[in-house]
Amino acid sequence: MGTISFRHFAGIDWSGAAGERHKGIALALCSTGHGAPVLIRPGHRWSRPEVLRWLCEEMPADTLVGIDLGISLPFADCDAFFPGWQQSPATARGLWALVDQICAKDPYLGANSFVDHPQASRYFRRHGGREGVHFRIGNALTGQGRFRLTEKYQRAQGCKPYSNFNLVGAAQVGKSSLTGMRLLHRLGDTLPVWPIDPLPERGSVVVEIYTTIAAMAAGRTANRSKMRKRHELNAALQRLQSETSMSDSPIDDHQADALITAAWLRIAAQDPKLWHPTAMSPAIARSEGWTFGVK
Question: For the whole prediction, is pTM greater than 0.85?
Answer without folding.
Answer: yes
